[in-house]
Amino acid sequence: MAGRLHIASLDLERLLPGLGVDSPLVTSPNLAPRRPLSAIRLEADRPCLSRLFWGLTPPWLEVLDRAPHCARAESLEARPMFREAFRARRCLVPVSGVYVWRTQARFKQPFLVTRVDRGPLLLAGLWCRFHTSLAEHTDSLALITVPANALLGPLTDRLPGVIAPADSHRWLDPRTPPDEARSLLATAPMELLGAFPVSRRVNDPAHQDPACAYPTGPMLCRNPR
Predict the structure, then answer these.
(1) Which of 81, 121, 122, 177 could form a disulfide with 92 if both were Cys (CB 3.0 to 4.6 A apart)?
(2) How far apart are CA 147 and CA 220, in angstroms?
């Protein structure tokens, strides 16, 4: 799944020229769900970075702890909670990596999944709006997960879908037909992503220091350098 994110300072303007910024990018070496998170949405046909709550909170949700932080790509249109958002309110979450945990004999070993070249990733998401009053509202999101590829499958069965920058406008645009948007939710090619083991410090979301993402072993990738 995607229970924790690594978000370094990213050159988003270079990645998406013309990007508007409503609020600065949220950065964290160890970001857990149910925290503020930066996301990119389309506003007046222009991508714009703003801050949302990580955990989808539709108006009828009564218990915040049940706000899903991930949605399976295969069931987006089968579950009412995700169906409308997928069709009309898609977003992108810029990150530098995703933490996953591999089960071992006595403990779970954390790994950081990143681009092989350590560049930024745009993760697929959907969002909703909850009006707290006539004048105020809260926006929240969930990441969309897809099956992991054969390389990373031994570490985790699912990862957030990765959207290429060239496909970002099609993904964000609510006029894009659902079938076309769904076609962008593909398993990442093995050449794109790698993963390396990191300290178990990352297990505690209270730890917010660079050591959380420090490699403790070589990167697992298709073409080791």
Answers:
(1) 122
(2) 18
Instruction: Please report, as a single letter, which amino acid is at residue 46.
Output: R
User: CA-CA distance, 176 to 159, in Å (whole number)?
Assistant: 23
Q: How far apart are CA 36 and CA 15, in angstroms?
A: 22
pLDDT tens digits for range 176-200? 999 999 999 999 999 999 999 999 9
Please report where in the chains the tokens 């499958």 appear, as a residue.
Answer: 153
Do β-strands 46-54 and 137-147 pair in parallel, antiparallel, or remain unpaired? parallel
Token representation of residue 69: 């932080």
More confident site: 134 or 141 = 141
Structure-token pair, residue 96: 């530098």
High-pLDDT (> 70) share of the chain, %: 92
Collapse the DSSP code of 157 into the 3-class scheme (helix H, G, I; strand E, B; otherwise coil) and give the result. Answer: coil
Beta-carbon contacts of 54 under 8 Å, excluding residues fewer than 6 positions away, are 31, 33, 34, 35, 36, 37, 69, 140, 141, 142
Contact 55, 140 (CB under 8 A): yes
Rounded Cα distance between 213 and 211, Å, is 5
Average pLDDT over residues 91-119: 94
Residue 180, number of CB atoms within 10 A of its CB:
13
